[in-house]
Amino acid sequence: MLAIIRIGAVCLAAPPLYAAMERSPLLLAPLAVGIWCRRAWHASAPVAPDPEQLRRQLIKAVLEIVGDRPGIHLSELYPRLLASPWGARLDETRLRAALTEAGITIHRSMRVGDVEGRSGIKRADLEALLRPAPLSAVPDPSPTGGDAGQAPPESGGERAGERAESA
């Protein structure tokens, strides 16, 4: 209904507007500037971030903090991640939720260097999350028992070199 009203308004306003622009072409400039401003405003609207991209960015940020060590304890990760641009607007509770939502496994007890028995994240788990998922084998949709989904004939069909003859 709203579209019909808009179309009707354009149909009623277009002829007088066109006639006015023919008489005075300077009317076209403010109209063009207005249209340009509205389009620019719509184009500059922020785009919602892709959740998968945010997940990968978090994993990469944690992996960067881990460095070349086999893992990191949460007691070291939280302060460093909260001080980074990635975690600037998070607290520890939200950070833990973001880590679990990203699929990062938090081990209850792990060893990093000389320290053992604290919760942490393993580097191998992070690297596995960044690897692309292997393509799953797609089952062959073609029938295996007969032609076009029909059951094979009981006689077993023709053998190689044989030909069925009609009587």
UniProtKB/TrEMBL annotation:
It comes from Streptomyces javensis. Residues 1-19 form the signal peptide. Residues 156-167 have a biased composition (Basic and acidic residues). Residues 132-167 are annotated as: Disordered. Keywords: Signal. This is Uncharacterized protein. The keyword Signal applies.
